[in-house]
Specification:
The protein has 296 residues and is of the alpha/beta class. It folds into two domains: 79 residues, Helicase, Ruva Protein, domain 3; 201 residues, 3-Layer(aba) Sandwich (Rossmann fold). The chain has twelve helices and nine strands. The strands form two sheets. Strands 5-4-3-6-7-9-8 form a seven-stranded mixed sheet, sandwiched between helices. α6 links the parallel β3 and β4. The longest helix is centred in the N-terminal third of the chain and has 16 residues. The radius of gyration is 21 Å and the shape is elongated. The chain starts with 8 loop residues before the first helix and ends with a helix.
């Protein structure tokens, strides 16, 4: 006889939320809070639709389902593993991607701007033929870019061979092998020398003070994907320095810098950064035109 206090989805959901709140988990990898995270992990594990919790709340669980769910809840609560690494799945908008601990969990405010084709800054999206995406990680932004700019080839770059193996799996899943070229390179080092209409990047930008205070969840991620040096701008400096010679005359550089606007302004403010509005306000993403970059 299987002895468990949990009989329904509602029981296990309540238990999970309590466990997550008791452990003081951090939720920066896709969920807003303990309830969202618990619901996602439960629905995913039971192979139920992720947007339909309500109909299943009073469904009775089989003993082996309870065991499986308790194990996953414990792994999230005790080991502080991001949910995406437990499920091997992450979402950006309506897109989902395979992820594991070789890549950062996808999260990007640039992802909100891609379906709008960076309007109004990109005048005619159909004329965009070459895009360079630096620090691609799981390949998520490259896939969104290829999907939104149908006439473009995307060169997606990462220094990590491990990350590119994950990106390759995602590119294959979306059947975009013919339009996305994955390149192992330290930024521009092995990038083909051609002119790009867009250079897009969500690089490592966490400053060293913030790195030392990261919640445990973030320590499961590849630190090379987070660490931006003393002021968080080490890679951004290199990206800006090399962008002008690789952009078309009307080209744009689009850079995500998270919570580091203050450091970005200190480093590049005299270039006249344009801050783009996202769901998090006007502090996360800036752009520079090819013309502005000529002054570097």
């Amino acid at each position: 006889m299987h002895n468990t206090p949990f009989t329904t989805v509602r029981d296990i959901l309540r238990y999970a939320v309590t466990r997550f709140n008791t452990e003081g988990l951090a939720f920066g990898h896709g969920s807003a809070d303990a309830l969202d995270e618990a619901a996602y992990l439960i629905l995913h594990t039971l192979k139920l639709p992720l947007d339909k919790l309500e109909p299943f709340l009073d469904a009775r669980l089989l003993p082996n389902e309870v065991d499986k769910l308790v194990a996953i809840i414990e792994r999230r609560a005790k080991d502080r593993v991001p949910a995406a690494y437990i499920t091997n799945e992450a979402w950006l908008g309506s897109y989902n991607f395979y992820v594991d601990e070789r890549v950062l969990v996808p999260r990007s405010f640039i992802a909100e701007l891609i379906p709008e084709q960076f309007s109004p800054w990109v005048q005619d999206p159909d004329t965009v033929s070459n895009i360079l995406e630096l620090c691609t990680g799981s390949g998520c932004l490259a896939i969104l870019l290829a999907d939104s700019f149908q006439a473009a080839v995307v060169d997606a770059v990462d220094i990590s061979r491990d990350a590119l193996a994950v990106a390759e799996r995602n590119v294959r899943e979306y059947q975009l092998e013919g339009r996305i070229n994955l390149i192992e390179s330290d930024l521009y080092e092995h990038v083909p020398f051609k002119k790009y209409d867009l250079i897009v990047t969500n690089p490592p930008y966490v400053n060293s003070t913030s790195m030392s205070r990261l919640p445990k969840e973030y320590l499961h991620e590849p630190q090379i994907g987070l660490d931006g040096g003393k002021d968080g701008m080490d890679l951004v400096r290199k990206i800006i320095a090399g962008a002008a010679e690789r952009l078309t005359p009307d080209g744009l550089l689009i850079v995500e810098i998270g919570n580091e606007r203050e450091f970005a302004e200190a480093a590049f403010g005299d270039m006249g950064l344009t801050w783009v509005t996202t769901s998090a306000g006007d502090d996360m993403v800036f752009l520079l035109t090819a013309e502005q970059l000529q002054t570097v």
